[in-house]
Amino acid sequence: MAYRALEKPAIGWIGAGRMGLQMASRLLDAGHDVAVWNRTRAKLAPLADRGAVVADAPADLASRDVVFTMVAGSDDLLQVTAGEGGVLAGTGRAPGLLVDFTTVSVQASAAVRAAAEKRGTEFLAAPVSGNPKVVRAGKLSLAVSGSQQTFDAAKPLLEVFGRRVTYVGQDEVARLAKICHNVLLGVTMQSLAEVTVLAEKGGISRAAFLEFINHSVMGSMFSRYKSPALVHLDFTPTFTVPLLLKDFDLGLAAARDLEAPMPVAATTAALVASALGAGYRTQDFAALLVEQARRAGLRLEAEDGDVDDGLED
After folding, report:
1. 179: number of CA atoms within 13 Å, CB side?
2. Half-sphere exposure for 79 (CA within 13 Å, toward CB)
3. CA-CA distance, 59 to 91, in Å (whole number)?
4. 100 forms bridges with which residues in the sheet?
5. What is the per-residue pLDDT across 249-292, written as a single tens digit (0 to 9) for each?
6. Total Cβ atoms within 10 A of residue 308
7. CB 112: neighbour CB atoms within 10 A?
8. What is this structure's pTM?
9. Which of 201, 225, 226, 240 gets the most CB atoms within 10 Å of its CB?
10. How far apart are the C-alpha atoms of 43 and 264, rounded to whole Å?
11. Contact 259, 272 (CB under 8 A)
């Protein structure tokens, strides 16, 4: 049975990491009734302070009309949904709709879909593009797969999270869309690092070069909101090098399965692995700039000045 949208559904939310916290906050800002669960209960305090109900276990959210998940990875998603004490694990009421925003494998997503189907729950895979700052600015993008009818019914609720919600097809194809996205993200970051280092070695400040790029045909939302990190060398993590390398591995595995060669992605994956080997584990993946500069014999210094990240436009 397809999900039937309610004007004000009771919502369950699982996961209060950097992204989950900001996304759940948008639901509260929109006036929704939200109950939340997270493995580390203390992380729920900001949501509880704003009126969210704190649940003791994922299973306690099973009576909610819609449940969203934003967790660390495939194993976590399987545990909080189909695992013991999961939102789909009981024999009583189950949510009408389950939506997962996590970047997970196709296999894990399919397993959750099968578990949801057994409980009569519609499931949408909806991996997201963006970071917490992008969420706060209301500019998140979502790729969504599953039933077209369910997507159409859920779209107004999904639009609470960002500016673009795109239906990409049936079953788990949104997972492939997100992996392709993250491979492009890594290739773009490495390319941007290379030309920025080249420009600086030739005497151009990073701020000036990136301002030029951002206002040219080559500029993008991504290049703009990464510019402050590249100029100020502020690598406060939004997406780390180990997570990027994991997605390259998934992308290259899919490329082998589908017989779609990706030579540029393969080369970039090796450079990302090199950065990981050099110790870039907890920093944002924009730190690829520093590793590229090291290979070029250039020691970077933070530059002063305001740099527009493009998120206030």
Report:
1. 21
2. 12
3. 10
4. 69, 125
5. 999 999 999 999 999 999 999 999 999 999 999 999 999 999 99
6. 15
7. 27
8. 0.89
9. 226
10. 39
11. no
Q: How far apart are CA 120 and CA 137, in angstroms?
A: 35
Q: Are 139 and 311 in contact (CB under 8 A)?
A: yes
User: Where does the pLDDT of residue 8 fall: very low under 50, low under 70, confident under 90, or very high at 90 and above?
Assistant: confident
Alpha carbon separation from 290 to 219, 278, 301 (Å, rounded) = 21, 11, 10
Amino acid letter at 91?
A: T
Report the phi/psi class of residue 111: left, alpha or beta, with left for phi > 0 and alpha for psi in -120 to 50.
alpha
The confidence score (pLDDT) of residue 313 equals 56
Is residue 36 within 8 A of residue 63, CB to CB? The reply is no
- HSE toward the beta carbon, residue 111, CA cutoff 13 A: 15
**Nearest Cα to 293, choosing from 209, 211, 200?**
200
Instruction: Decide: 193 and 271 in contact? Cβ < 8 Å.
Output: no
The C-alpha torsion from 64 through 68 and 73 to 74, rounded to 10°, is 60
Query: Averaged over 192-203, what is the pLDDT?
Result: 98
Model pLDDT for residues 27-70, shown as the tens digit of each residue: 999 999 999 999 999 999 999 999 999 999 999 999 999 999 99
| Sign of the CA dihedral running 182, 184, 188, 194 | positive
User: For this structure, is 178 an active site residue?
Assistant: yes
- Per-residue CA distances from 287 to 10, 236, 244, 292 (Å): 41, 10, 12, 9
Residue 172, SS3? coil
8, 155, 178, 226: the catalytic one is 178
Q: Which domains does the chain have, with CATH numbers?
A: 10-171 (3.40.50.720), 176-295 (1.10.1040.10)
The Cα 191–Cα 219 span in angstroms is: 13
Cβ(302)–Cβ(221) below 8 Å: no
The helix (H) or strand (E) run that includes residue 36 is strand 33-37
Which amino acid is present at 217? V
The residue assigned the tokens 């609470």 is 160
